[in-house]
Amino acid sequence: MTGRQRARGGGVSGLWWDAGMASRVLYLLGSAAPPVLQTADIVVEAQRDGWDVCVGLTPTAAHWMKDELRSLERFSRHPVRSGYKLPGEPDAWPPATVALVAPATFNTVNQWAQGLTDKFVVGFASEAIGKGIPLVAMPCVNAAYARHPQFGRSLATLREVGVRVLYGPGGFEPNEPGRGRPDAFPWRLALDAASEAAGG
Ligand SMILES: Cc1cc2nc3c(=O)[nH]c(=O)nc-3n(C[C@H](O)[C@H](O)[C@H](O)COP(=O)(O)O)c2cc1C
Fold first, then answer.
1. Across-strand partners of 42?
2. pLDDT single digits (tens) 168-192
3. Is the pLDDT of residue 58 over 50?
4. Do the strands 164-165 and 24-30 form a parallel or antiparallel pair, or are they unpaired?
5. Is the pTM of this model over 0.85?
6. What atom in ligand 1 is closest to the CA of residue 119?
7. Separation between Cα atoms, residue 105 and residue 180, nearest integer Å
8. Does position 69 have pLDDT exceeding 60, yes or no?
9. Is any atom of ligand 1 closer than 6 Å to the C-beta of 82?
10. Tell me, which fold does domain 22-85+92-197 have in CATH?
11. Closest CA to 143 of 173, 166, 169
């Protein structure tokens, strides 16, 4: 059973993984591009890599995945977060070892680079720069979005402050509009970069 089938209601019995087994915490922060629909499988893959995984989604991505959120919470064993906590509310997640923003839409990349933090995922990633939390980003944009002048500026800004941006050769390479292949999104490269960012 794939992680997505499990998240869609296929049950969580027989889980071998337990949050207490992992001391390395990966924040997997996704925005609304089609590979986000593979998040359940990626949580399982990251758990196999030894991560305790906490899933954050932009509100649009959370809407796309609304039927899977409860199950995702059950098998990640953490709440899926798409909004900020209330003032005074305790943190729902353990502290991050590393955060992986993937897939990162054109919108999320630009908001992050410009510090526009009305969304929890972007707010966390923006503050994490200043906190020195290792950050990895795998954009997912088509070639038309990529030609917009702000996109290159945003990638440069994020790289300047130390975010490992996996875009171009060795990372995500854009296709022309309508030719995207969500199944080819290089998740494995993203997870490997997260491990490397965390020191191996
Ligand atoms: C079917 C579909 C596919 C999309 N694919 C992408 C994509 O690959 N990359 C992208 O930047 N935006 C894509 N978008 C547009 C984003 O979902 C949209 O800009 C959204 O506002 C992003 O919000 P977020 O960054 O807060 O998740 C897609 C939209 C739809 C409906």
1. none
2. 999 999 999 998 888 899 999 999 9
3. yes
4. unpaired
5. yes
6. 26
7. 13
8. yes
9. no
10. Rossmann fold (3.40.50)
11. 173
